[in-house]
Amino acid sequence: MHYNIKPKMILFDVGGTLFSSSKFSARNGLAALRLAAVNPQDVTDDELAALWDEYSEKIGSDHKSKTGVKLDFPLSAQLKYITMNAGLRFDISIAEQEEIFDRHNSDRQVIDGVPELLDAIHSLGIRSAIISNNAMSGEGLELAIKRWIPNERMEFILTSADLLLTKPCTDIFTAAAKYAHLDPTQCWYCGDSIEADVDGASGVEMTPVLIDANAETPYKFRTDCGKEYLTVNHWQELVNHLKTHF
Questions:
Q1: Topology of 9-21+109-245 in CATH?
Q2: In this predicted model, what pLDDT tens digit does every residue of 184-209 receive, in sequence order?
Q3: In terms of DSSP bridges, do strands 127-132 and 108-110 run parallel, antiparallel, or are they unpaired?
Q4: Domain-by-domain residue ranges, the chain?
Q5: Which residues of 164-244 form beta strands (DSSP E)?
Q6: Using H for helix, E for strand and C for coil, what is the string for 72-118?
Q7: How many CB atoms are located within 10 Å of the residue 185 CB?
Q8: What is the pTM of this model?
Q9: What is the per-residue pLDDT across 33-91, written as a single tens digit (0 to 9) for each?
């Protein structure tokens, strides 16, 4: 790995890496989405929740490719099924609908140290982007992230729903690097999962960084999964590394 070489770009996971969330509630998200329709009086929150359950049962939850890669079913398809069957009409885009649903389906907080880390990356001239296992489209997730972190400067946001493929499938990492016109070895990837993030990034020779708030030491290199990776228990530790070395 390339921890002593300044990266051209640092890419991030979202859930557990940039944000923490409370328990998911589809009903709360759908209730907020109903109020954003031009005809919210045409359906009740109970009816929308029933349509969510109906569609979830129809499509199931374990979608895999022939090669065994887990697939993400796009949230946009699920929302369209529900709102169209409910007769709801909108004068906002489907990406905006995704953002409203996402904003209200759980309580979300920016993880401590994230704004400072993003500012440090920018000040060092390092580009940034996102690769996320997320049912939202990249466009919808971009709207959400801009609401949570107004000072973010992500060049692009790529979700598993955009490609259907989920991490740790290396194709999603390769696509991001090629889109950035970089070799994967010029990129770092920050996440909170050994399997999805460390394994996926290492598979294309991106340099992985794991955030683990429960780590016994603030800053440590590990090889316990057969791959070298840096673990930090707070994003300030990565800020310190970047400022010290670059």
A1: Rossmann fold (3.40.50)
A2: 999 999 999 999 999 999 999 999 99
A3: unpaired
A4: 9-21+109-245, 26-104
A5: 187-191, 207-211, 219-222, 229-232
A6: CCCHHHHHHHHHHHCCCCCCCCHHHHHHHHHHHCCCEEECCCHHHHH
A7: 15
A8: 0.94
A9: 999 999 999 999 999 999 999 999 999 888 898 999 999 999 999 999 999 999 999 99
